[in-house]
Specification:
Blueprint lengths: L2 H9 L26 E7 L2 H9 L4 E9 L10 H5 L6 E8 L6 H10 L9 E2 L2 E2 L5 E5 L2 H17 L24 E4 L3 E3 L33
Parallel strand pairs: 6-7
Antiparallel strand pairs: 1-3, 1-6, 2-3, 2-8, 4-5
Length: 224
């Protein structure tokens, strides 16, 4: 669906929404049009690449990039304000997924932990700043438990984290590495401007569309 239509469908079961200017609450709702789907919100640096990785996952039915975890849940931020670090928000992707096709556990492993360095503070790759921090923003207590468990397993078993804060992968079982990825309850989610939605699928910065086909394993060019 189009961005505006999607934002309305997500919020309408909670309160009537006339446009996508409304913030999307961290509390999941059961939309009449999405009765069997569950909600997940993730931040992994620039939201363009993470969205495409999530689009490619079988079972993820809708994606929406936006801004979340800011200090003000009443005033909608714009891209310039978030980029300047004035609002406390981070770039994030909210998805609706079909749990009969993909589990929350699989989403985190396939599209998040495979891409994100969970020990990097305030950024990923060439993108630096608080708006690019990483986070798993849970909507249920089960999601929180899953996120904390998988993060612990990741730093204990992934060789990329060997030597960080005493980690000796893959057999490390002592104190955890210095994990920078936030695990917090999801706050209000503000949809980003329309041109950010499905940015890489539509061509990105260089006008070269990247496939969002389910199961696609092509390397993601993060800026297009």
């Amino acid at each position: 669906p189009e961005v505006g239509a999607m934002a309305v469908s997500i919020t309408r079961s909670r309160k009537e929404a006339s446009s996508n200017d409304e913030a999307l609450s961290g509390i999941p709702s059961i939309s009449p049009s999405l009765p069997l789907l569950e909600l997940a919100t993730l931040a992994g640096g620039c939201f363009w690449g993470l969205e495409l990785a999530l689009q490619r996952c079988e079972g993820i039915e809708h994606t929406l990039v936006g801004y979340t975890q800011g200090g003000d849940s009443e005033v909608r931020p714009n891209y310039e304000q978030v980029s300047a670090g004035n609002t406390g928000h981070c770039e994030a992707v909210m998805v609706y997924f079909d749990p009969s096709k993909i589990s929350y556990d699989e989403i985190l492993k396939t599209a998040f932990l495979s891409r994100v360095d969970v020990t990097t503070v305030d950024g990923q790759g060439r993108d630096c700043g608080r708006q690019y921090r990483t986070g798993i923003y849970f909507h249920t207590s089960e999601q929180e438990k899953t996120a904390r468990r998988l993060l612990e397993e990741e730093v204990a078993t992934n060789p990329r984290y060997a030597g960080i804060a005493g980690v000796v992968a893959p057999t490390y079982v002592g104190k955890a590495a210095l994990v920078a990825t936030e695990v917090e309850s999801a706050k209000a989610f503000w949809p980003a401007e329309g041109y950010h939605q499905r940015y890489l699928e539509k061509g990105g910065r260089f006008g070269q569309p990247q496939s969002a086909e389910k199961g696609n394993t092509d390397e993601i060019r993060c800026y297009g």
